[in-house]
Amino acid sequence: MSQSAAALPVLAEVIRSGFVEGRHHGSLVLLAADGSVRLALGRPDAPVFPRSTAKPFQAVATLRAGLAIEGELLALAASSHSAESFHRDAVREILRGAGLTEDALRTPAELPLDQVEAEELLGSGGRRSPIMMDCSGKHAGWLAACVANGWDTESYLDPAHPIQQLAREALAESTGETPAHLGVDGCGAPLLAVSLTGLARAYRALLLAEPGTVQRRVADAMRAHPEYVAGTRRADTWLMRAVPGALSKMGAEAVQVVALPDGQALAFKIDDGAERARGPVLAEALRRLGVRHEVLDRIGAEPLHGGGAVVGEVRAAF
To answer: Quick one: how far is CA 222 from the chain centroid?
Structure first.
C-alpha cells in the first residue's frame, strides 16, 4: 500500500512572487561510494514502478538473447529517445538488420517526447506513429532479438515471452529484489515494481561491472552515446556529456536514477509525477554527492512565468 503524499517529505517547492504556491513530495536515496545508504528520504525501500529507468536492464536482456548490437544502436535500445531524425533512422536500422520494418513495432502511435520535435512534426503535416514513441528503440532491439532466436514477434510483449523473462531476470538480478508487482508500461511492455534503493544499487552495479560483460557493455554504450539515450535537448544527455563517467536515465512519473564512476548513486521519485520538480531535485541530489559543474544550473533551472516574465521558480527543498 502506497504512503500518502502528505506523509512523504517535500522534495521541491513552487515559489511564485516570493510565495510558496505548492509543494512536491517524494522519496529519494543517495548511496555512498561503497554502496551504503548515505541519505534516505521518504520510503526509498518501498516498491515503485521504475518506468523507463528499467530500460538498461531490458537492454541487458537483448544482449543476453544473443543480439549483436553495439554503440549507438545499443544505447538506443536502452533509450527514451526524442524521435529526432537520427533516432528514427537508428530504429529502422535495427529493424532492417532483422529483416523487419517499423510495422512490426507494438508501441502505440505517439508524438515525439521532445516538444520541439513534436511541434516540427505537426507543422510539417506529420502525425503520431509507433516509431515516434520514445520506447521504439527498446522494442526494435527486442524484435531483432526475437528474430535472431526464432521467437514469435507478435507476442513479444507477453510477460511469459522469452525476451520478457530475460528482462525480468536482469532487473531482479541487478536490484537484488524480487519484483513486487507486475503492471503494464506506457509502451505496452511488462512493468515490474522494485525499490528506489534497489534501482540505485542496480545502476551502480552496471558501472562497476567487469569490462566486456553485458551489463558494462550497456553502461558504456549509454555513456558514450548519450544523445541516443535521450536527445539533444534533454537533461540525461547534458549530464552524461558534462560529467565524465556518469550514467543517467529518467523514467515517466518523475523517476530518476544516476550512478557515478566512483560508486556513488542516487534514485528518486516525485510522488505526484510532476516533471517540473525533476530537474531541481536532480541537481541538488548531485550536489549532495559532490558533483560540481555548471551543467547542474542548467538541469536545475525551472523558472515560473507571469505575464511573459520570470516571477519565480521550482526549487529543491531538502
So the answer is: 11
